[in-house]
Amino acid sequence: MVLSFFFVGSLYTRVKFLEKELATYTGGSKVAGVRVEAKGNDTNQQEPSQPSAVTPELKGEIKLTTEDHVNGKKDARILLFEYSDMECPYCKKFHPTAQKIVDSYKGDVAWVYRHLPLPFHANAAKEAEASECANELGGNTAFWKFVNALFVKTNSGGTGIALSDLPNLAKEAGVNESKFTSCLESGKYAERVISDADTAASLGVSGTPGNILLDTKTGKTKLMPGAYPYEDFKKAIDEMLTN
Fold first, then answer.
1. CA 79, CA 206: separation in Å to the nearest integer?
2. In the prediction, which pLDDT does 206 show?
3. CA distances from 225 to 15, 49, 75, 229 (A)
4. What is the pLDDT of residue 56?
5. Given CA atoms 113, 114, 118, 123 in this order, what sign does their dihedral have?
6. Exposed, middle or buried: residue 155 (CB in 10 Å: 0-12, 13-18, 19+)?
């Protein structure tokens, strides 16, 4: 029964993504921040991968909100916003890099996690909802414990971890398993996940991990899509800090 609730909730969320994003389909459109090009009866969905050789530009303004999940000091000068998919193999690869950045800069950089589950990753949207349930029941610490554990244990690719295993991860994060299951079955955070994805699209983030550096002192931003290595982020951050 629990598994069936998870499946229905996950399917509902993915359908909502597709309904919202495909409403303006005109032969080539965005689906949850992913560019889809029509080629006859085929579609080409791009999952971010290695860093882009072309320097992209951020569209619009990004800022920290009260609903954001922050790893580090909220008043850090540099904020690293990551739009992430919990079933994306490149997000799994990037996860320890982001933590290394926070640890290395000792209060100067904070990591902000936002959701961008791709529709072709079957479990990603429900996993994102699960992290919000962990946050509701255990706060920011439980959120990060849950996300960290999930990225360690998932094999990625869409169904890298069974939805039925999510309550166990929540328990490891210090969250009441029964309350977590009720929260997840309710689907109460489906719209929150969709809202993050909509924001990503409005900013020009077209895949995961979609990374944005914000210098809160100067307002300067840098969009860095893909699993850039630590050294590339260090160079960009150091340039911001010297201004």
1. 20
2. 84
3. 26, 8, 24, 11
4. 76
5. positive
6. exposed
Longest dimension (CA), the chain: 56
Instruction: Give the whole-angstrom CA distance, residue 113 versus residue 124.
Output: 14
pLDDT at residue 54 above 80?
A: no
Looking at every residue in the chain, the average pLDDT score rounds to 84
Ordered alpha helix ranges (H), 154-189: 166-172, 177-186
> What is the Cα–Cα distance from 113 to 81, expressed in whole angstroms?
6
Q: Is the pTM of this model over 0.90?
A: no
* Cα–Cα distance, 44 to 38 (Å, whole number): 7
Helix H or strand E segment including 114: strand 109-115
Could you tell me whether strands 78-84 and 109-115 are parallel, antiparallel, or unpaired per DSSP bridges?
parallel
